[in-house]
Amino acid sequence: MFNEKFKSFTGNIFGGLNAAIIALPQALAFGIATGFGAAAGIWGTIILCFSSALISGKLPIISGITGPVTIATASIMMSFNFDKSSVLTIIALAGIFQLIFAMTPFSNIIKYIPYPVISGFLNGIGVIIIIMQLNPLIGGKVMSNTVTSISAFSHNIHAVNFEALTLGLLTLFIIFIIPKKFNKIIPSEALALILCTIIASKFNIKTETISNISNSLPDFHILKFNFQEIITHIHYSMVLAIVLSAESLLTVLVSESLLKTKASPQRIMAGQGIGNILSAFFGCLPGSAATMRTVAAINAGATRKSAAILSAIILTLPIFLLSSFVSQIPLCVLAGILIKTGYNIIDVKLLKVLKYAPKEDLYILILVFILTVFYNLIAAIGIGITGAAILYAKKMADKATLVHKTVYNDEIIKLEKDIDINYHHKIRIVHIYGPFFFGSATQLVSQFEEIWGTQYLILDYPSDDLLDISAIFALEDIITRLKAQDIKTVLVLNNEEVFNQLETHKIIPQFDNVFFNEIQAIEFVKSCLSK
Questions:
Q1: Which of 216, 172, 178 is nearest to 319 (CA)?
Q2: In whole angstroms, what is the distance from residue 26 CA to residue 68 CA?
Q3: Is the predicted pLDDT of residue 326 greater than 60, yes or no?
Q4: What angle is formed at CA 103 by the lines to CA 119 and CA 277, rounded to 5 degrees?
Q5: DSSP string, 365-394
Q6: Residue 76 C-beta-side C-alpha neighbours within 13 Å
Q7: Which DSSP letter does residue 36 get?
Q8: Do 59 and 252 touch, CB atoms closer than 8 A?
Q9: Which residues contact 211 (CB under 8 A, 6 or more apart)?
Q10: Which tens digit of pLDDT belongs to each residue from 44-53?
């Protein structure tokens, strides 16, 4: 008992420390990228991480400003001509919307956003971050959007600050070259930040630095809420709240999977909302639960919210004790760190199978990606969801036909009843009826959380319909969850087209066997158990 408590205690300490080390360079860089400044990024992360941890429950959810939140905030800043007062009002309203979401089924509704919309959005965010950091990487200034960044880069490329470029490339080299195992001891971003800042200071490298970090607490801002402003800001704050909440809920799902436990999405949403409201009143940036930092904390042994509280406390130390060092951090070094962050956000998993994706998914992904990068990410999400809904409605309408066929097979029904009686749930048979698409896929995955006492699961997909990309990834997730519970999976299909599609996506080899007849599958599993 003592050993378990000591392991939990030390795990939460190392988890909080690990998360703080990862958060520091990102918070500074994201703060500068939004136009709010480095202090707004770091203090926003501290306020949100601390306050949300107190409210959100037991899980070690590490919160703070993230890539998607940065781009959403920067986009709003540009729309309001860098009027911080208006943007802070929008952030506070977004926090209020999160509190409203916590009292509604919103946390369940958000999972129905199609995967191509999410992927197009994330890929767009990743590309925007990379493009916006090209100018500071070569010694120029950070631009406010993609188009101006590209335009400025084409001009600045003729007047490159080679000292800044060398330092930025060294940062990227350190980040990419450090092995993953070493990252568990000290994250490569933090190592690059420290080493490159020391080099810049030691050799008097002439490049732009943070320079204006303050070692005092942030000032309290009195925000104005009048009817006219609320009407003007409401759609911006609503979309920002959706971005904040979506990333938080994704982090919750990941942490639940890693820790094999359940959390209350509503409570976590409420904690995030209160944290973002407080951030706005202190003139800081909003944030969400950060997946990468939370995973890093859990991998280091964190199991409780004390890791998140400790992470926030640790983040205050550089401000009060190392402010002179922080002020000397070169912007080209932060640019290198953010370029790696942008790369991490890009959905590589989907890009690998893009050529096999249905055309409808591809159209939506490309549309959302282009709108996110070159127009407006707020419009991109709305248009993407609407477009996906229209295409799905068309797909269902085209397939709406009356079919008369025998539904029940007496032999199969008898076999399934015998299995229930004689095998005591060691064998389970699950039938997937109806269209297996982005809407049903996410719902189905949640049904495979815990299947107690089962050794073999027969998954029967009797439909002739091909799966969309969301369903394929959901099927892969189901197999992973079952394997984690030491459950062997057998697949039953109705036709070779679906088999060929799953084989193309390398899903078939992940099953223990595949049949085109349920009776054969049952007999196979029974013979395996009798060995």
A1: 216
A2: 12
A3: yes
A4: 75
A5: HHHHHHHHHHT-HHHHHHHHHHHHHHHHHH
A6: 29
A7: S
A8: yes
A9: 327, 328
A10: 999 999 999 9
The structure's pTM equals 0.68
| DSSP-derived secondary structure letter, 264 | -
What amino acid occupies position 174? I
Show the tokens assigned to 189. 């971003």
User: Both tokens of residue 147?
Assistant: 């188009």
| Reduced 3-state DSSP string for 437-483 | CHHHHHHHHHHHCCCCCCCEEEEEECCCCCCCHHHHHHHHHHHHHHH
Amino acid type, 26: Q
pLDDT digits (tens, 9 = 90+) for 149-196: 888 888 888 888 899 999 999 999 998 888 877 776 777 888 888 899
Amino acid at 70: T
pLDDT digits (tens, 9 = 90+) for 339-370: 888 888 787 777 776 777 777 788 888 888 89
Start-end of CATH 3.30.750.24 domains in the chain: 410-530
Q: Which of 276, 205, 227, 235 is nearest to 63 (CA)?
A: 276
Neighbours of 46 (CB within 10 A): 26
> How is 297-354 classified by DSSP, letter by letter?
HHHTT--STHHHHHHHHHHHHHHHHSHHHHHT-BHHHHHHHHHHHHHHHS-HHHHHTG
Identify the residue whose tokens are 């959390």.
263
Pairing mode of beta strands 427-431, 456-461? parallel
Per-residue model confidence as pLDDT tens digits over 477-488: 778 878 877 888
CB 458 within 8 A of CB 478: no
What's the order of all strands across the beta sheet hosting 427-431? 427-431, 456-461, 488-493, 513-515
Which DSSP symbol is given to 513? E
Give the CATH H-level superfamily of domain 410-530.
STAS domain (3.30.750.24)
Q: What is the 3-state secondary structure (H, E, C) of 51-84?
A: HHHHHCCCCCCCEECCHHHHHHHHHHHHHCCCCH
| Residue 219, token pair as written in the block | 């000032």
How remote is the C-alpha of 429 from its chain's centroid? 33
